[in-house]
Amino acid sequence: MPGFEGICPGQIPSNRGPPGRRGLLACASPCRKPAPPPTIAVESPSLLSDAYLATLGLLGVYGLHRLTLLRHFRWQRSEGQPPAGEEEFVPTVTVQLPLYNERAVAARLIRAVGELDWPADALEIQVLDDSTDETRRIVDAEVERLRERGLDAKVVRRPDRSGYKAGALDYGMARARG
């Protein structure tokens, strides 16, 4: 605009307002352009390609590791189960049930252990009973039922309750065969 040198093109002279307070109206586009948003400066273009190649290399090594594990798993699995009918060694297992005045669960617990799917000649059941209430009678009756079914079941009672349930387990372990 002629006569307005030094005024930014986005500003228009104004005569509005009280005397002495007249000035310039600014339009929406300011004179100066805003600074660009901050960016990550890369010193050399090869830095990004180096990082890219390193990432690809690590992913490649990871993939090869996975393929090796898969091949090893399939090789091990190919041996399969032994043919049916071959006798296998079955270890003797001792199941210990430490109880102390638990008449509400004693019978169910002993029956559940009697239903285990394990050969009877390789299973020993120890009921480690330190009870002082009617749980003793329940335990004796349930263990007798297991014996009638041909299971090796015993009631083990200690002279004192030292060590509580952990002590009962320790006491029973000294008398276990499995």
SS summary, helix count: 4
Give the ordered list of helices and strands.
Answer: EEHEHEHEH
In the CATH hierarchy, what is the class of the domain at 93-173? Alpha Beta
The Rg value, from CA coordinates, equals 43 Å
Q: Average the pLDDT over all residues and give the rounded result.
A: 78
Q: Unreliable segments (pLDDT under 50, ≥5 consecutive)?
A: none
Strand order of the largest sheet: 3-4-5
Structure write-up:
The protein has 178 residues and is an alpha/beta fold. The protein is built from four helices and five strands. It has helices spanning 45-77, 103-114, 135-148, 164-173, and strands at residues 11-13, 24-26, 93-99, 123-129, 152-156. The protein has a three-stranded parallel β-sheet, with helices on both faces. Strands 1-2 form a two-stranded antiparallel sheet. Helix 2 links the parallel strand 3 and strand 4. Helix 2 (103-114) runs parallel beside helix 3.
Annotate the secondary structure layout.
Blueprint: E1 11-13, E2 24-26, H1 45-77, E3 93-99, H2 103-114, E4 123-129, H3 135-148, E5 152-156, H4 164-173
Parallel strand pairs: 3-4, 4-5
Antiparallel strand pairs: 1-2
Helix pairs in contact: 2-3
